[in-house]
Amino acid sequence: MxxxxxxxxxxxxxxxxxxxxxxxxxxxxxxxxxxGTAEIEIxxxxxxxxxxxxxxxxxxxxxxxxxxxxxxxxxxxxxxxxEKDLTVNDLSSNYIRYFLKERxxxxxxxxxxLVHDAVTAGKAVKALSDENISNISxxxxxxxxxxxxRFDLRLEAVKTAKIKAEAMAEAIGQKAGxxxxxxxxxxxxNQLQTNVSGMQARSMRAGYNPEPELSFKNIELKSxxxxxxxxx
Length: 232
Description:
Elements: H1 2-28, E1 31-42, E2 46-54, H2 64-77, H3 82-85, E3 86-88, E4 96-100, E5 104-115, H4 118-129, E6 135-142, H5 146-171, E7 176-184, E8 188-189, E9 196-197, E10 215-216, E11 219-231
């Protein structure tokens, strides 16, 4: 048993010694540390609208089923693919019934509509408000290539750090060599879920005729890295 433990101890000791030696060599190397930052603004192409169908908006004159048909028809008239871009928000039930003033019962149903630009969003809000569907709000805005945009931004931040290191090294008569350390910060993006100008939640009431001019702020992305380069 002792013969097995002793070689294992030597192996652990050797690995530890190597790690300590490697760390010491890293610290002893002359290096330059810089930061790199990249920013970009992108126009959102995924706008999510929350639509609440409510029988009480028509004083019970139109059923929830008829409201749903009218909604889908008006959206289809705007060339919106309701089969693809309109989904039920509450998948646990077809609709929700709740009590008003103890005796009255009204039905509601909630949807999420995806549109791809502010113009279409404004047209959809106007068309639905004409059908007494006025409880509409912004859920969030996004971009279809968000992951790729973030990745590309990180690469630009690294390139910026390299350029800075080369310029600073040249200023002291040296050159920036291979990178020996890279660390990225979390991306920073402006919060656009509710940051929308031109429209507020539940602002489109029945009888409000002009088509709203919605405008969305661009999505702001920022990526930062810290890099160390060997000084030659």
